[in-house]
Amino acid sequence: MRLTHGGAVWLMVVVTLMWGTAGVVTRHLAQAHSFEITFWRSLFTTLALLVILPLWRGRAVFSQLRRGGRELWISGVCWAVMFTAFMVALTLASTASVLVTMSLGPLLTALAARIFIGHRLPARTWLAIVVAGAGIGWMYGTQLMQGGGGSLAGTLLALCVPLAGAANWTVVQHAQAKGHRIDLVPAVLIGAVITALFTLPFAWPFKAGAHDLGLLAFLGVFQLAIPCVLSVLCAQVLKAPEVALLALLEVVFGIALAWIGAGEQPAPSVLAGGALVIGALVFNELLALRGRRTTVADTAVPGAH
Where are the chain's structural domains? Predict the structure, then answer.
């Protein structure tokens, strides 16, 4: 069944809402610590994808793991970096700081296209990069002046998510240029497995009780595995600027849910810096939609994390 354009838009809204639950759910964990949170989430994501993939693509999907080549596994490593950095950053910084930082993904991807592939960037994208950089600088600088060492460390760690996303996009584009198509969902499965194996030594001994395991299972299945699959379906119908614009709803949903559901009120500096970042992104993607065609630099890998 192929989605209609309207159906893809609404489904992408649901996807961003599911992604946005990470912060509020994490704040209700009682005993699990940073690497343990990351381990269990990735383990439950792995188990969910092992069920979803054969039902969706058939058992032949697992043969792609053997035939995918080096680029598929490099993409999997990029996903692993995103998964780990995102969850650990959430334990160190506010949900708003992490989500605003991660929203830089489309602009860092455009920079990667310019640096590594040589694509020319339109003036609107350069302007958006400057404005978004000012917003992030304001947010980081305020945290530094206020002595929020842990919060600043978490926000800096969150920067690894869009950086790894830009690297992932570069790998995917390089593979496609050579005639090799990377299937993103098996790459996500590889990333989840790598993350679980990497964080296991740091997660031991486990402290999570039944309450925490239930929440972590929710994160693995409903916050990551299922929306990851749905976002790939949406990206097959929607233009890249549309996906980028709709993905910004995760920032809105994530901050609102953490505020309402966990009492985590965002700092004024985060709201001010975030307004600059989001405004720059909206400006860039709206102009891209108004253009006659979307450039390769406007194309981004769906940002599950």
Answer: 5-298
